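At this stage, I put together one protein's amino acid sequence and its backbone structure tokens, which the following lines show:
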Amino acid sequence: MPGENLSRDEARERGRLLSVDGYDVALDVRSAVDSGLDAATFRSRTTVRFRCAEPGASTFADLLAPSVASVTLNGRELDPAAVFDGTRIALEGLAADNTLVVDARCAYSRTGEGLHRFVDPEDGEVYLYTQYEPADARRVFANFEQPDLKAPFTFEVTAPEGWTVLSNGAEEGRPEGGRHRFATTRPISTYITAVVAGPYHYVSDRYRRTFEDGTELEIPLGALCRKGLAKHFDAEDIFTVTKQGLDFFHEHFDYPYPFGKYDQAFVPEYNLGAMENPGCVTFREEFIFRGKVTAASYEGRANVILHEMAHMWFGDLVTMRWWDDLWLKESFADFMGAFSLVEATRFRDGWITFANRRKTWAYRADQLPSTHPVTADIRDLEDAKLNFDGITYAKGASVLKQLVAYAGREAFLEGARRYFKRHAYGNTELNDLLSVLEETSGRDMAAWSRAWLETAGVNSLTPQATYDAQGRITELSILQEAAPSHPELRPHRVGVGLYRRQDATGGLVRFAHTEVDVSGPRTAVPQLAGAERPEVILVNDEDLTYCKIRFDEGSLATLRARLGEIADPLARALCWSAMWNMTRDALMPARDYLGSVLRFAGRESDIGVLQSLHGQARTALEHYTAPDRRESAGRELAEGAVRELRLAEPGSGHQLAWARHFASVASTPADLQLLQGLVDGTAKIDGLEVDQELRWTFLAQLASHGVADEAAIDAELARDDTASGKRHQVRCLAARPSAEVKAAAWAEVVESDTLSNALVEATISGFAQLGQQELLAPYTPRYFEMIERVWRERSIEIAMAVVRGLFPAWQVEQRTLDAADAWLSEHAAAAPALRRLVLEERDDLARALRGQACDAAAAPRP
């Protein structure tokens, strides 16, 4: 990675000098189907037309390529060996108007960065797609790789005959000799250009809308996937959500979709959830469901479709100047994805998922030592890569939800409309957005920004009440606290709800509610004085603000006893989230949280919340449970999962969720026998269809306990000899409890770079398993010995996966923490992005140790 970085200062200077008028990019990818050395590279020929504000000045173009055949600047041939160093092309003596032509051999990727080449093991077909964010277009064509140097792009791709080839613009004319030429785009940034090529299965549709002034808009729609997934491809549902989203954004943004067609490609071995390339959005193909999934999976896919669609305006039409303001696209897309999901699709409970899942991601990120303001200080591209995190996405979206409550819905949307019209096809910074919001809301956006966008950390809000002799509230206040490291106390618009049981058999329902502006360490809530004593006081009722919810002692006692009785699903989700945060903060022992899951998760109606509870319960078991209790706690979780599995409605999503949860915690001989029986058909549970994906889920747990051997795993691959099956097989093989297996898995990931990104991920996923601490212990020192080398030698995507995935979290002990601290102390000069990753993992480990101490000290509850 050395030499590949680009600093903010370099980008600012180049942005000051240059204006780009256009790119013509010609790619020849016929070599993709070769079996020899030619399959490693493809030809890339780029013509860039640009202006220089200071004729005679020098700058550079970006290119990551194995070789360059020729470089021509303003008709003058340059010596490639003299001007190209493997990452940059030196450009000296620029004119006012310039033309740069670069002819290069670029490399196909196996890491999901640049132009990724995938060979389908099922039929041998080759599939290509690009992924660039934040700066990997330079792996495919020469360019000025920074978001503020936007330009029109014209792509031409020569591909094998019969292939489907797509780019941002519509294809112009019928291809001849495999040559596909695409319409010139509007001005866009390099990182959102795209090419997708291969024998993809393609489905088409159209979107039509007539506006109030009588004008009509028609958008060609496409959806595509590998041929091997065509039988599972539910393109009709994808188009339904797409049309609903386009209707919503047209109605609220008052700016027609500006990029012509709208293709959505579901591609293999994708590192991200999706990418907002205008006119050619790419998604991970796991959004095509090979087996039965719960409604939460369909909701999640719909949310991602709408998130990427929101980017067509927030990010593509109007783009941040530099990655400091990444939130200008990601926070808005995350918020608008949930907003449109709830208002335009069948997923009306999307805010519950947002409160329970997205905010959980944000709360974790905001308590790490690497936390940062929503608008961040991004020094270079490595910083940018790591800031695609829970703060930029989910905290930023939560802050915008708070802004809508603060400024008003219509003022917020009118601000967005003015923002698009004022800055279309341009680049913006924080103040450009704040100025229009101040115009439309009349609010002091500078003060709001200082509190919410320019400071880090999460506040805790706790209710405090006193009562009279008749049991009525005499005084209710909200106490606000902040961590010492980030002491900012913010203004919050919050709801406060009072809940109680209305009769002996009913659930807990809200009987009083108010909204209040919280500021400072204590805020009175006089509106609720005189109300009868509640059984639960819920701060942030209806989830208006971004905060950690705490409870008074009476409310917490009620929740421990009757959390499942809260009738409103959003209020219940907020209580679950609050209890999880208390567990992570070592304010509630893991045994109490697991006990609540065992008692109340079976009553949870929202399938997304239920699946979150399952994941959190497993984390609590693995990381926050005292070691001497872990075995018994695991048995209790498995027993509870089997009980709920058998009680669940046959064939329901809840039944499937409990089956998957049971598989994740099964450990006793009886548990494993049941899993084996479900795989081989000797055991049945009414309504549970054990399809291929569920078979792999069960087999993974059997493999980790040594019940399924290599022969059984290979036999399963023979049943499912597909790309998905191969990933499952690799994961299962690495999960087996054998020293030889662990050594081989470690070597494949750390000592070799032959595995693709997807298989690196699968191997790492299988490597570390609960209960294999003794097998994994030798790898703790080896981890700290290898991470600098891996960071230096591998692509950033793979290096991040290795550094995060192989951190020795399997050994939750003080000596592991000491080893991390020693590495950090002794490697102060290591790459800042690498140190950040280690610091984050170290912080999770320290949190786990505090959680285990809390659990060990807790007395058993009746």
Q: What stands out?
A: The chain is about 45% helix and 20% strand.
